[in-house]
């Protein structure tokens, strides 16, 4: 395993990344209703996944995320306000057992404009720097999603490629991939 993290050291119940304003905790069924409600067409416009058809789809996503966490393959977190514990969105580091893990983030519409995405991704990157043996973090983003592109750039991300990608809805997206290097 190319990770400093041993699979058995990822403790689901105690795992938490804390930033100035946020708590990043493993996604759980506790957040299923909010994820289902907030992960709508407007949010998924710039993403590979499509909106869930039912709450069952959301619960399957959560079950898969928990399984990925327990197997040491990924960390998918609920992003919460530290002060109120309000659910703000999801983030994650996928393929943590490789030299090129992938970052992902989404923030609910009502929380946009507060730089929660930037703070959450910075927290995930710091955790990766402290716990993973990686070369760079991949950060693929739709070209027109300037807010998300600014997140990558704020962390020193370098644009390395552009390519089309068809999402789960069958829509071709113009992607920009950033690499965010370890320790930067």
TrEMBL record:
GO terms for molecular function: acyltransferase activity, transferring groups other than amino-acyl groups. InterPro entries: Acyl_CoA_acyltransferase, GNAT_dom, N-acetyltransferase. Pfam families: Acetyltransf_3. Keywords: Transferase. Residues 22-180 form the N-acetyltransferase domain. SUPFAM superfamilies: Acyl-CoA N-acyltransferases (Nat). The keyword Protein biosynthesis does not apply. This is GNAT family N-acetyltransferase.
């Amino acid at each position: 395993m190319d990770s400093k993290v041993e699979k058995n050291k990822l403790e689901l119940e105690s795992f938490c990344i804390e930033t100035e304003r946020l708590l990043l905790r493993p996604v759980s069924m506790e957040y299923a209703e909010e994820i289902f409600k907030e992960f709508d067409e407007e949010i998924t416009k710039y993403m590979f996944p499509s909106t869930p058809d039912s709450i069952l789809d959301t619960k399957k996503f959560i079950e898969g995320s928990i399984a990925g966490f327990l197997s040491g393959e990924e960390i998918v977190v609920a992003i919460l306000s530290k002060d109120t514990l309000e659910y703000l969105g999801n983030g994650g580091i996928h393929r943590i057992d490789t030299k090129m893990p992938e970052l992902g983030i989404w923030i609910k519409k009502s929380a946009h404009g507060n730089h929660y995405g930037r703070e959450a991704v910075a927290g995930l990157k710091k955790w990766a720097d402290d716990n993973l043996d990686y070369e760079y973090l991949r950060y693929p983003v739709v070209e027109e999603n300037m807010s998300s592109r600014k997140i990558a750039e704020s962390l020193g991300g370098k644009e390395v490629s552009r390519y089309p990608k068809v999402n789960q809805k069958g829509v071709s997206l113009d992607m920009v991939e950033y690499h965010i290097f370890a320790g930067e």
